[in-house]
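ok new one. same drill as before - structure tokens go in, u give me an amino acid for every spot. 101 of them this time. try not to just spam alanines like last time pls lmao
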């Protein structure tokens, strides 16, 4: 899981570098924030102002051995939790990058 998340993040970064044709931090970050993350790791992902990547999360149930039909067929997806519900809201962020009024 950790490796998959890192691969997703690095791929998103490299796509942003290519899109802006630069490695300038502010340009790349702006591109990353405006580009949704939809890959094998995350669906409906968005990088917020506080740097948190918010994306859908899943509730899985492990299958009984008799329910498994192929190698790596171990889980039932029981629910999809939208990112807005799965992560702390931006309004509750304590990140110093967020300007609160």
């Amino acid at each position: 899981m950790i490796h998959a998340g890192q691969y997703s993040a690095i791929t998103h970064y490299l796509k942003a570098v290519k899109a802006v044709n630069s490695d300038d931090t502010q340009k790349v970050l702006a591109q990353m924030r405006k580009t949704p993350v939809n890959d094998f790791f995350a669906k409906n992902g968005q990088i917020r102002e506080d740097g948190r990547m918010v994306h859908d999360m899943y509730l899985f149930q492990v299958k009984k051995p008799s329910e498994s039909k192929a190698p790596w067929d171990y889980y039932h997806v029981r629910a999809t939790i939208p990112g807005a519900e799965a992560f702390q809201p931006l309004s509750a962020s304590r990140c110093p990058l967020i300007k609160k009024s």
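Residues 32 and 61 are 33 Å apart (CA to CA). and btw The first strand starts at residue 46 and ends at 47.
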